[in-house]
Amino acid sequence: MRTQVAIVGAGPAGLLLSHLLDEAGIESVIVETRSREYVEARIRAGILEQSTVDLLHTAGLGERLDSEGDFHRGIYLNWPGERHHLDFVDLVGRGVTVYGQTELTKDLGRARQASGQRILYEVTDTAVHDVATEQPFVTFVGPDGQAGRIDAEVVVGCDGSFGPSRAAIPDPATWERTYAYSWLGILADVAPSTDELIYAWHPDGFALHSMRSATVSRLYLQVPTGTDITEWSDDRIWDALATRLGHGQDGWTLTPGPVTEKSVLPMRSFVQQPMRYGRLFLAGDAAHIVPPTGAKGLNLAVADVALLAPALAALLRDKEPALADAYSETALRRVWRCTHFSWWMTTMLHTSDDPFDAQLQLSQLRWVASSGAGAAGLAENYAGLPIGY
Ligand SMILES: Cc1cc2nc3c(=O)[nH]c(=O)nc-3n(C[C@H](O)[C@H](O)[C@H](O)COP(=O)(O)OP(=O)(O)OC[C@H]3O[C@@H](n4cnc5c(N)ncnc54)[C@H](O)[C@@H]3O)c2cc1C
Hints:
By secondary structure, the protein is an alpha+beta fold. It is built from eleven helices and 20 strands. Helix 1 (12-23) packs parallel to helix 6 (101-114) and helix 8 (297-317) packs antiparallel against helix 9.
């Protein structure tokens, strides 16, 4: 088949890109290895920056987000004996919205279906070809075992951290940081014990109390990389969360509940550049991974496609290449800012065996919590910089 833009991957980046391109009158086809049900049920991110929320509204995707999203003015920072609230709205004039990636993916899936978007689910052996020419194409094998081919003017790799698109860019520069710890994450059918997220430093390790709705909590524990999840019973998880999050501190209590999902998520920082080679563009996790501590992964994917969609519209519709030529450099400015912020939050909050590091972390936390300048720096990055930063 033939289209203007062939998109590899129907995660948030691929689906939103096809939506924005459609609005600009540009046709696309998406290929995706998983089923639609799998993509929409995948539990991942849940914090939307203000600029992401604004973009979704402008794109006509704000209805359920408005009724079911939960606006948060800020976060709590916690360490033994102390809890401080940072009010992002007071500090920088904007906050964040709790809305699960699952819900955003469902909204995008419905909107794409209503527009008649062609999405080929459950394909295998996806490969991108001839991206250095003006006639790139994508090949794949459909669920019926039939070989398929999409000829396009542009190919966009939105295929996440394990997809094939990134490897089609010859001799890229890459940077990577792996961490000695992972996150053990749970979803629990219990009302959150807090109105806004609690980021907790504790000598036993970091903990985070997040949420997905008024009845579903999402909580995380720092565990060593390579941790076997079967060693963590639900009781052990709740006990560790209670200790690290400060159960009993100033009368605050953590209410446990039935665990419906648990998994261990390794932490990694990764950037590949450039994000464009010939007629191949990368967006989202295909080009960069951040540890989730700064809640940036999903927002970065959205910011990439918010830049890329108008750039491709100008290139393909108006034959104007300037925005497309600038895409990689422009996107990478924000990518590196978020890469630094995610690393900074991660290294401030996750403990190592080094007692000197622990004192530095506590000193930094006290400074962020007590200095207007320190708090505003965290707030500005967490609530998100403008798309075109
Ligand atoms: C387990 C996990 C937990 C996370 N938790 C958080 C969190 O708590 N907070 C946060 O901010 N971020 C989190 N993230 C990061 C965030 O979810 C991602 O940054 C976001 O999903 C990026 O969107 P994307 O569309 O670029 O990539 P993805 O969501 O990864 O989508 C890529 C799509 O491409 C498809 N694909 C892959 N290979 C192929 C192929 N060969 N052919 C066709 N399709 C292909 C995949 O199936 C997938 O649907 C998490 C990530 C993971 C993996």
